[in-house]
Design goal:
With 205 residues, the chain is of the alpha+beta class. The chain is 17% helix and 44% strand.
Length: 205
C-alpha cells in the first residue's frame, strides 16, 4: 500500500495537515482490507450503538446501521447526538476508503462525531496481531496489545497505538474484537480534548 505521493499539488498541504493531526498519519483502506482484523467489513443487518463522552464534559451517542443497497453497495445510516442531533444515510461502495466514506455525509457534524471511530490508520489495522502481549514498533510508531476490554457483553483485546505528529506524541487506545468491523471501545485525542466511544448495543452477525 502506498501512503505518500512524491509531490503535492497546490492546496494539498492543507488536506495533508488535516489527515496528520485529525486522524494520525495514514488513513486506512476500508472495504476489502486484507488485515488480520475484519475492519470495516460490514454485513447487511448489522447495527452498533456507542456512548460518547469527552474529558471536557460532552456526552452523546452514535449509532451505525447497515443495510443492503444492491450490487455490493451498503446503505449506512449514522445517527446520534454530539454537537447536535443528526441522522443521514450514505452509500458505502466496494473499494471505498473509510476516509472517503466518512466525509461523504453532507452534515459535517456526522464526520466530526464519527471520524475517529470509523477512520482508523492503516498502520494500526495492518500490523496489529490480536494476542495478549503483542508488541510492534517502526520508528516512532508502536502498537501494544495488553489485556481485555468488554463492552455490551462483547470482549475484545485492548491495544495502545502511539505515534508522533510534528514531533508530538499521540496515543490512541482501541478495544478490538477481530470478528467485528469496528472497535468496541476507542479513546482518541481531539482538539484540546479526549473522546471516548464505548459500545452499548450490537445486533447482526
Amino acid at each position: 500500500m502506498s501512503y505518500w505521493k512524491s509531490s503535492l499539488r497546490p492546496g494539498a498541504l492543507v488536506l495533508l495537515v488535516v489527515l496528520l493531526v485529525g486522524n494520525g498519519a495514514w488513513p486506512a483502506a476500508a472495504q476489502g482490507n486484507s488485515g488480520k482484523w475484519g475492519y470495516f467489513k460490514f454485513k447487511p443487518g448489522q447495527s452498533f450503538k456507542y456512548d460518547m463522552t469527552s474529558e471536557r464534559g460532552l456526552k452523546g451517542w452514535l449509532s451505525i446501521k447497515i443495510e443492503d443497497g444492491g450490487n455490493g453497495i451498503l446503505n449506512v445510516t449514522l445517527a446520534g447526538k454530539w454537537t447536535e442531533d443528526f441522522s443521514e444515510t450514505a452509500k458505502l461502495k466496494p473499494g471505498m476508503s473509510a476516509f472517503d466514506f466518512v466525509y461523504a455525509f453532507k452534515n459535517a457534524a456526522i464526520s466530526n462525531a464519527a471520524n475517529a471511530l470509523l477512520n482508523i490508520d492503516a498502520v494500526f489495522v495492518d500490523n496489529a496481531k490480536w494476542t495478549d502481549g503483542f508488541h510492534w514498533t517502526q520508528g516512532d510508531i508502536a502498537i501494544d496489545v495488553k489485556g481485555e476490554k468488554e463492552c455490551a457483553g462483547v470482549k475484545g483485546w485492548l491495544a495502545a497505538y502511539t505515534f508522533k505528529v510534528f514531533g508530538k506524541l499521540q496515543k490512541r487506545t482501541f478495544g478490538v474484537n477481530p470478528n467485528l468491523p469496528l472497535p468496541i471501545y476507542a479513546q482518541v485525542p481531539a482538539a484540546n480534548d479526549t473522546w471516548t466511544y464505548s459500545l452499548t448495543e450490537k445486533s447482526g452477525s
